[in-house]
Amino acid sequence: MATTPTDRRTMLARRIRVDIDTATYPASLYAQFMGVQELKPVDELRTESDEVYEDDGAMRESVTGYSWRLEAKIMHSTNAAGTSLDPVHAFLYGKFLAGKQNVKLGEFGVRWYDRNGVGTANEGRAYVKQWAPDGGNGGAQDTVSIVIQGQGPLAADVANPEADLTPVVTGLAPTGGGTAGGTLVNIYGGHFTGTTGGTGVKFGATNATSYTVVSDSHIVAVAPAGSAGTVQVIVTNAGGASPNVAADNYLYA
C-alpha cells in the first residue's frame, strides 16, 4: 500500500528578516538588522471591559485599538577587526539614548518580512523601549535583549522587498567625489548577494575600480576616475541591473 506524502512544509523562524531605516525623515535608507539570535514580532489588541448586567457575570470585552512591537535578542557585534560596532547596532543604541530625552528623537522606521519573498511586509515607525545586556560569566557571549516598540499604525500590506530579486540602490555615502576617482563609496540597497565580476558595479559606463559585497544590503566600492557631472551607480547580478533612481546619483566634481 502506498504511503501518502505530506503536502505541507513547516516554515522556520529564521526566515524573518528585519531592516532598520537609518536615514533622517523624509529620506529612507534601510539596512539589514544583523546578529539576530531570537525574534518575536508581537501584534496585540487593546481591550476594555464591555461587560453589563445582562451578561450574567460573563466577561465581555471591546477592542479600542492595538499595539505592536519586536522583541529581539541580538549577538552584540563589531567588525571583524573588533574596532567598531556593527553600524545598525550602534544606530539602535544611539536611538535608545535619544529616546530618553524625547521619544520623537528616538523614532525610526522598521520593516520585517519573509526573506524568501513569501507574503507581504510589515512596516512602521518605532523606538527602542528596552536595551538590556544579558550579562553572564567571563566566557559568555555579549547578547542584548531589545524591545522595538511601535509608534502609531503598522502597515501590514507593504510589498515584500524580497519578492523581486532585482538589485536596488537606495542610497550612497558619500554621494560624490573627485574626478580622479579613488573615493570609497558605501552603496546601500537590497539584493546585492551574488554580485561578482568586474562589471558588477558601475559608475555610469565605467566599472568600479574595486568593490566588496558586505551584505545583501551593503556594498563598498572604490569610484573610478570620471568626468565632471552626475552618473548612475548600477549594481548588476543574476537578478538584473538596478533601475535608475535619484538615490543612485553620484556627482563627479
Report on this model:
- The protein is built from one helix and 17 strands.
- The N and C termini lie far apart (76 Å).
- The protein is globular and about 80 Å long.
- Helices cover 6% and strands 47% of the residues.
- It folds into two domains: 146 residues, Elongation Factor Tu (Ef-tu), domain 3 (Beta Barrel); 85 residues, Immunoglobulin-like, CATH 2.60.40.10.
- The protein has a seven-stranded antiparallel β-sheet with strand order 2-1-5-6-7-4-3. Strands 9, 11, 12, 15, 16 and 17 form a six-stranded mixed β-sheet that branches.
Briefly, what is this?
This protein is mainly beta and 253 residues long. Helices cover 6% and strands 47% of the residues. It is built from 1 helix and 17 strands.
